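Lecture 7, part 2: worked example. A protein chain together with NAP.
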Amino acid sequence: MIKPQTLIIGANSGIAKAIADQILKNATDNLIVISRDLSFYKNKGVPPTHQIEVNDYSAISITQAVEKIKDLEIQSINRIFICHGVLHTNNIQPEKRLEDFDASSFVEVMMANALAPILWIKSLTPMLSSKHECKITVFSARVGSITDNKLGGWYSYRASKAALNMLLKTAAIELKRRAKNIKLISFHPGTTDTELSKPFQKNVPDGKLFNCEFVAKQLISIVDNMPIDNTLSYVDWQGKEIEW
Ligand SMILES: NC(=O)c1ccc[n+]([C@@H]2O[C@H](COP(=O)([O-])OP(=O)(O)OC[C@H]3O[C@@H](n4cnc5c(N)ncnc54)[C@H](OP(=O)(O)O)[C@@H]3O)[C@@H](O)[C@H]2O)c1
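Predicted complex, written out as structure tokens:
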């Protein structure tokens, strides 16, 4: 029997590595990983089936990576996890007040969190054969919900995740006409213990800071139980819908 195929993009993220670990441990799927840093996978006893290194997540790098996937002549991809996202870097901190807002930081966060995921979806969609179901999960965040925004702050990150959600919603409407086999999921993992959340963990209530393994197991179960219904689902780690 042919194994299902999973693709993980931004595979060096803390949560992405935990998803990969689940898949490799249970040997359920063939696995392709894409990242700027594949060292975690190079040292694995059982490595992913294919590893594709990218220099960055520019439009040209994304196009070239998808060409490499096409060269693998895989029959179908059944699950895709687009995991990358930026909240802070050496030069960027989430804004506490308007005075902190910086044009070039905003552009960098938007490119990583909103532009790159839609470029992946644009480039991958033509190779997702209409005969096979494919569920594409993109990592969003609850702070991308306009209704949920009670605290303010984090202008760029919030705006990038709200923009991501709008791009995904628009894509879901188009795919309903053009590729009914594709399901889009915009996912909030909850506050999870990774490099991204490290500087902001001290105010997280007891029991609300998840480990990556827990989130990965939750997500895999959510994805596997999600019907292909030609809509975008915006859900959290419990599978509960988030208001837009
Ligand atoms: N951790 C949380 O508490 C939390 C909460 C809500 C939402 N999320 C979302 O969940 C996703 C995964 O987060 P994580 O916590 O696992 O993050 P992480 O461990 O900090 O991993 C960072 C991820 O972002 C990618 N990345 C780093 N710089 C980038 C850039 N300049 N342009 C594009 N991509 C870049 C990395 O790709 P490489 O593989 O190439 O290094 C990697 O996939 C993100 O979308 C994040 O916004 C996380």
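The longest helix spans residues 155-178. The chain has one domain: 5-236. Keep this in mind for problem set question 3.
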